[in-house]
């Protein structure tokens, strides 16, 4: 049986004055996770802060499969876009680092 786990990784450059709020939205129990948890197939989110560039964060969103992630994006498109707009002022930039499956 093949492991179909899927992760989506993002890099963020956070406005210095917005770090606490950023963590409230992007942390493992944050506002984004509350939205993700409404979808089937969501596993969890991890938030990492760069040790040398303190304004740099990475999120790792984990799903049971790419299909589960796509289904979430379709079903919750309006809520996703609204939340994304709400969070724009928290960051200087956000960059998708890639979509990955377990074992390559």
Q: What is the helix fraction of residues, given as a range?
A: 25-40%
Give, in order, the helices and strands: EHHEEHHE
**Main β-sheet description:** 4 strands, antiparallel
Overall pLDDT score: 95
Poorly predicted spans: none
Query: Distance N terminus to C terminus?
Result: 15 Å
Number of discrete helical segments = 4
β content, as a range? 25-35%
CATH architectural name: 2-Layer Sandwich
**Overall radius of gyration:** 14 Å
The helix-and-strand class reads alpha+beta
CATH top level? Alpha Beta
Largest sheet strand order = 2-3-1-4
CATH topology group: Alpha-Beta Plaits
Give the total of domains. 1
- What overall geometry do the principal axes of the alpha carbons give? globular
Number of strands: 4
Describe the structure.
The protein has 104 residues and is an alpha+beta fold. It has one domain (6-101): Alpha-Beta Plaits (2-Layer Sandwich). It has four helices and four strands. A four-stranded antiparallel sheet has the order 2-3-1-4. A hairpin with a 6-residue loop joins strand 2 (42-49) and strand 3. The mean pLDDT is 95.
């Amino acid at each position: 049986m093949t492991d179909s786990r899927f992760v989506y990784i993002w890099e963020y450059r956070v406005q210095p004055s917005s770090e606490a709020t950023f963590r409230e939205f992007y942390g493992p129990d944050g506002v984004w996770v509350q939205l993700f948890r409404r979808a089937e197939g969501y596993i969890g989110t991890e938030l990492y802060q760069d040790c040398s560039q303190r304004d740099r964060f990475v999120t790792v969103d984990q799903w049971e499969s790419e299909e589960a992630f796509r289904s979430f994006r379709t079903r919750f498109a309006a809520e996703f876009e609204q939340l994304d707009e709400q969070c724009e002022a928290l960051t200087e930039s956000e960059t998708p680092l890639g979509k990955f499956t377990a074992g390559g």
